[in-house]
Amino acid sequence: MRRIGASLAASALLSACNRHQSALATFGAEATNIRTITIALVVGAAVIAAIMIGVYWRAVRAPEGQLTHKQGMRLVLWLGGIGPAIVLTVILIFALPAMRPRVTGAGDLTIHVEGEQFWWRVGYERPGGGVLVSANEVRVPVGRTVAFELTGRDVIHSFWIPGLAGKMDMIPGRTNSLVVRADKAGRYRGVCTEFCGLSHALMAFDVVAMEPAAFDAWLAGQARPAAGAGQGEGERLFAANGCGGCHAIRGTEHNSRIGPDLSRYGERLTLGAGILPPTVERTAQFIRAPQEAKPGVRMPAYPQLSNQEARAIAVYLKGLK
Amino acid sequence: MKRGLPGWALRLRVTLWTLIVPPTTWAAHFLFAYLWAAINCAKVGQFATFPWLFVGGTVAALLVILASGWIAWHQSRVPGDAPPHEESTDVDRLRFLAKSTLLLSGLSFVAVIFTALPVVFIGDCR
């Protein structure tokens, strides 16, 4: 019975295990370095703890007078002074190369990400010049060096893709650089790790690591307006209700940069910055009452829209791909 | 006194002033490391090539600390009263100051190395 209880308690610790948002399930070189150092430190600490327990065990059981005063002082000097200094120096030399930022070249991809309450403004520098704006989703090519240029718009946020690299603060008025390289294609998740307001815990984003050729094709294709942009009843309602005052859709008259860009909303993997499935139903609910999904959100509620109208806008947005 | 110590070192008695030599050297080296990295980043943009001046400054700081620890070690072994050395006599005061200087030398030696290693290994101004 006790064993079952212990197993159940231990299994609770495993509930956070996953493959898409874990510093242990890495898909990038930087995060792999961090994981290696973590494992080495944990194993090393266990070994040192075992050695010390052994020393104490002997010390308690040994008959008095087994060590002379001089031998005792020497033991203190080596185990308490010289030994730790050597161990710490070795750990420092082992860990320092991993702290050296990856070298960037002229042809490397640069992605600008700005944290805002409570979403992410993403801009890809395109090879031919210009910046492709997107939101709440970061796509990176596998095997290539990518430089993230990170800043904040309102308060301090922090950019963390646990499987890819360490955390980096996003500070208003300052640009921090985070250079990474993804090694494994797949769908992952990043989060904000600096408390930034009511919906801090609801500020996440999707990360898609793509094969280089697929990434290049995707980036080139994104510049074109989505097929359904600027057409239909949804577009009319979108314009009539002033959605274009904050949101942009490429290929239409809506080009405001206040809120998240919706040019390819139909391709997004999540709604509301990594928190909800982007179904028509959820999208319509979010339009009518965004604060229910995201307390403190800057987007105003639209309770005056009927269900049908909100759905029409949602269907229009879902068609943008 | 042990043999092997030069005359000037024999005459130099450990005092409160010599006690602060190792930590002061550590502080000076710390400032030197920051200034050196800042100047290199501003003028060159990096310090990836092997930094001779920095290594020289670090070796000089370590030598000062070693010398101070060596003198302190000798003076901490001045023959005198029986232990414990905690009376307000000249010999006990000397031994106490010398032992403290020796321990501070050990700490400062390790600290200078820990300050220098990141400069040598990281070499990046970002």
TrEMBL record, chain A:
Cell compartment(s), UniProt: Membrane
Location of the Cytochrome oxidase subunit II copper A binding domain: 106-221
GO term, biological process aspect, one: ATP synthesis coupled electron transport
Primary location group: membrane
Membrane-spanning ranges: 35-55, 75-96
InterPro entries hit by this protein: CcO_II (IPR045187), CcO_II-like_C (IPR002429), Copper_CuA (IPR001505), Cupredoxin (IPR008972), CuRO_CcO_Caa3_II (IPR034236), Cyt_c-like_dom (IPR009056), Cyt_c-like_dom_sf (IPR036909), Cyt_c_oxidase_su2 (IPR014222)
Signal peptide (from-to): 1-25
Span of domain Cytochrome c: 229-321
Cellular component terms per the entry's GO annotation: membrane
Membrane topology: Multi-pass membrane protein
Reaction(s) catalysed by this chain's protein: 4 Fe(II)-[cytochrome c] + O2 + 8 H(+)(in) = 4 Fe(III)-[cytochrome c] + 2 H2O + 4 H(+)(out)
Recorded GO MF terms: copper ion binding; cytochrome-c oxidase activity; heme binding; oxidoreductase activity
CDD domains: CuRO_CcO_Caa3_II (cd04213)
Keyword annotations of the record: Copper, Electron transport, Heme, Iron, Membrane, Metal-binding, Respiratory chain, Signal, Transmembrane, Transmembrane helix, Transport
Function: Subunits I and II form the functional core of the enzyme complex. Electrons originating in cytochrome c are transferred via heme a and Cu(A) to the binuclear center formed by heme a3 and Cu(B).
Similarity comment text for this entry: Belongs to the cytochrome c oxidase subunit 2 family.
Record-given protein name: Cytochrome aa3 subunit 2
TrEMBL record, chain B:
Keywords from the UniProt entry: Membrane, Transmembrane, Transmembrane helix
Designated name of the protein: Transmembrane protein
Transmembrane segments: 12-37, 49-73, 102-123
Species per Swiss-Prot/TrEMBL record: Sphingomonas yantingensis
Domain of life of the native organism: Bacteria
